[in-house]
Structures are given as C-alpha cells and as structure tokens.
Amino acid sequence: MTGDINGKPQSAPRFVSARDVAELAGVSRSAVSRAFTPGASVAPDTREKIMTAAARLGYQVNDLARGLLANRSRIVGLVATKPEVGFRAHLTAALAAVLIRRGSVPVLINAGETAEETEAAQRTLFGHRAEAVIVLSGSPPSSFIELARSNGLPLVAIGREAPEIDRVQTDNAGAARRIAAAFVAAGHRRLAFAGSQSGTPAIVERERAFVDEAARLGIAAAVARGPDTDYAGGLLAAERLFAEEERPTAVFAVNDLVAFALIDHLKSRLGLGVPADVAVVGFDDLPEAAWLGYRLTTFRQDPLEMAERAVALLEDRAADPLAAPVSLRIAARLMIRDTFRPLDDGAPLP
C-alpha cells in the first residue's frame, strides 16, 4: 500500500487484467481470452459484453505473456552503433514504425564502442529471445551477426556488406561515380572527397568509387578524412582540404553532416561562396539539407523504403529459412538544390 497526497492508503498501481474484465462482464476468464484470440469461438452477445467491459476498464492484451506461452517474443532487435547520429536516426524511426505496423516489438540495441558495451548489448538482445535482428549501417561488430545466425534468427543487414545474409544497400558506388562525372562535366578540375576514418563499408565504397571515377577522367581527387561521420569530423576534414594552397573547387561529402560542416567552414571561416567558389554535394538528404542556410544538393536515401524492404526480407526469410541470401541495392536519387547544379539540371547523370 502507498499513500496519496492526503495521506490516505492507496493501492499500488497495476495493469488491468483479463480477470478484471471477466468480473465486470460477468463471464469466465477463459471467455475473455477467447474474445481476444483471432479465430476463437465466442458467442456474439458474450463478445459484445467483453469488449464493452474492456473498453470501460482500458484493458490491453498482455502480448508479452502470450508470447512467452507461445515461445514467441515478437521482439525485433535493431542493432546500431551511434543510432542517434544522422541518417541512422531516421532509419531507426522508420524501422520502428514499419515493425509496429506489422505487430512486432522493435527494440533498439546500441552496440556501443567498447567490448563491455558490446557484451551488454548482446546479453540484452539475445537474453530477451528476439525473433529477428536488423543490423543497421555503421559498424556494429560481426559478433551480432554470428550470434543471430547461430540462434537461427531471421537476420537482415542494412548498409553493410555481408554476403552470407540478406541485406539492403544503397548504390553508393553508382552515386559517387555519377557526381564525379557531373563535377568534371561542369568544368571542375580540382575535385575532393570529404570522408571519415571510421571506415564503414558505405563510406569506403563512396570514397573509392569517387576517386576511381575522377582518375578515369584524368583527375587526381584529393581526400581528407575526419575522425567520424559527424559535424565535428566534417570540420576537421574541411580544414585539411582547404589548408592546401591549391584548394578544391568541388567537394563530394561522405554524408550530409560532413557537408553541413564543410559549408559552414567555407562560408564562416574562409569567406568563400557555395557554389560560387566551391561546389558541394552530400549524401543522405537529411531534413536539414533543405533548410535555407544550406539548400544542399545531395543524394537521397529513403529511410521508409529501406525499412519496408528490410522488413519484407525478414518475413521472406521466416517463411523460407533455407533460401539463398538476397541482396537488394537501391539507387540514390540526386536532390538538386543550390550548392551544385549539374549542367543537365536534373536529367539522369552519366
């Protein structure tokens, strides 16, 4: 017992139970259970009394208890490193929405950056008997993938190369090659890539494809990497790129956060115009990319499309566990704003 603000005894708070509903409706506990079980047989008038009582009491079915009885948790683990940063935050939100819509319980697992954090994350995920796992972009350790596979869980990776499992990826290389060619077609001869030392598969793929395409077109692209793919890392990459006497005139940033930092460095610290002095293109199309202070030309990754594709792969895998791994690669659309306009102004790039 607890006391209220007047000192009167008060019962400890608790959830409304099926027994409460049964008592109010004047039926058995098993009748309530059948009424909330799809396909179960309940007389229409009995069902109506139960539903009326449930609505009056605010009763909700205990899905956790049902899952334990059926040996199904309905939990889908979303594993990510730094899930709060940039595109991953929007992808996590989209995945949660899609999973909730299908009746799953999304659980965000921050893989952490130390061995202790990773071990704790693994205990949480697998100790709660997740039914499936989605590994997001970034760099969660491969041990999550290995544990999920050894436990027979449907598993999908987003934004990382994992040939042995189902995966959804953006066509990073295609986008990087397209923008390098577009820069050159627009007359730029001093190209650069603002990247990151974090070395995730998507980052490596974008950098390599951009540099290789520039070289194929006869240009040696400069590369500078900050410690991470965030705003602070973007500022360091920008400082390194523009510390040289021969400054770039066109820069492809590994993501929008780095592009924002680059633009701020150019305008606020160096007094340069974008795109008058330096053209800038990002990657992700975060909501801030359309803000008046940036109006960033960038490649769009659609978080909802990626989430829907990933969840569909989970469902296919659950239906056919022995099928060959599926790899989906989604094209990134160039969103043309003010920081760079290709000569064809929106037509498909080469």
Automatic annotation (TrEMBL):
Pfam family, one: LacI
Start and end residues of each HTH lacI-type domain: 16-70
Xref: Gene3D superfamilies: 3.40.50.2300, lambda repressor-like DNA-binding domains
GO MF term (any one): transcription cis-regulatory region binding
Keyword list, A-Z: DNA-binding, Transcription, Transcription regulation
SUPFAM superfamilies: lambda repressor-like DNA-binding domains, Periplasmic binding protein-like I
Record-annotated membrane-spanning stretches: none
Record-linked InterPro entries: HTH_LacI, LacI/GalR-like_sensor, Lambda_DNA-bd_dom_sf, Peripla_BP_I
Protein name: Transcriptional regulator
Organism of provenance: Pleomorphomonas carboxyditropha
Lineage: Bacteria, Pseudomonadati, Pseudomonadota, Alphaproteobacteria, Hyphomicrobiales
